[in-house]
Amino acid sequence: MLKKLMAKLGVGAATVDLRLDRPAYRLGETITGAIRIEGGSVEQRISELSVLLMMKVNVRGQEVTRPVHTYPVSRSFTVQPKPFVQEIPFAFELPAGLAVSTPSVQYYLHTKLDVERALDPTDLDPVQVLPPEPVERVLNALARLDLRQKPDSGKLTPYGQEFSFFTGRPLDIPLKELEVVFLSTPGELRLLTELDLAVPGRFGGEMERKAEIVVPQDLLAADREEELSRFLLDTLRTYAENPQAIPYVSMASYGQPPHGHQGHYGHHGHGMAGMIGGMAAGFLGGMLLGEVMEEIGESAGDMFEEAGLDFDFDGFDEL
To answer: What PANTHER family does UniProt report for this protein, alphabetically (predicted)?
Structure first.
């Protein structure tokens, strides 16, 4: 009787341990592993065994933790006392719209054993979310140009996840910083970029130019990173030297912005809008963005207004 009472309080109860097949997975891949359950001092009835994918982000110095999805693994079974051991395999697909793992965006798996009328054993395990291969190849191609990611690169912004770079060595263009938001649409990868350019003759002076870069699919092949690097450098050079070459970006292509505002991105159509609340299909980091903002007390309108955007896209400002 005492053993049953203690088990209900968690002493001598069954334990649960999730074991991943590997520590990192790409967006869209299937996470696989097994959950090891060991019996305690008494028999215990389990209502449900589930795994929660949790996201922890840092926005404006505030830490926000949100469940991404709950994956049921098993229901209504009994765990016998020691030396009972059971391993249950599990598998689930990572959603495509998540932000990837960076210093400001982290993920873990919360395994929960729902014990009837007792304290529930749990287990927490970190998991790294890697970018899709096309995005990773662009990041690698930028690294080949010695464009290095800044410490806060990969933070969440009103547009999704933004990657920011500084030049590790002088290029043949006056580029000081580069900011990139990735948008994946059927059959193509788009980079929504902001170029911070040095102004000749003005100490510390700079100008901003914003442009969309559509990456040719053939350059995203595994063996073409050098050619991809040249394409990106040539495109950045063209946009830096000739702003009239920057393609116009229409808001209508990706939906209408809230509050009836209209705007543009770049100078000459494609575009983006409807990012809030994960509504922007294809934007890296768009999933759960609205919920994160809600948790820190930001409305969709406030988020844009405080960023100083007013839908004219004057910059990728941090939240």
So the answer is: SPORULATION-CONTROL PROTEIN SPO0M
Any idea which architecture 13-130 has in CATH?
A: Sandwich (2.60)
Q: Please give the residue that has the higher pLDDT: either 170 or 163.
A: 163
Query: pLDDT confidence of 202, banded at 50, 70, 90?
Result: low
Q: Domain extents for the chain?
A: 13-130, 133-306
- Cβ–Cβ < 8 Å for 178, 211: no
Cα separations in angstroms, 18 against 101, 114, 219: 20, 15, 39
pLDDT at 307 over 60: no
DSSP 249-265: EEGGGG-PPGGG---EE
Beta strands in 60-187 (DSSP E): 62-79, 85-93, 105-115, 122-130, 147-149, 155-157, 160-167, 175-185
Q: Environment class of residue 192 by beta-carbon count within 10 Å: exposed (0-12), middle (13-18) or buried (19+)?
A: buried
Token pair, residue 6, equals 């203690």
pTM: 0.80
- Residue 295 has which token pair? 């948790």
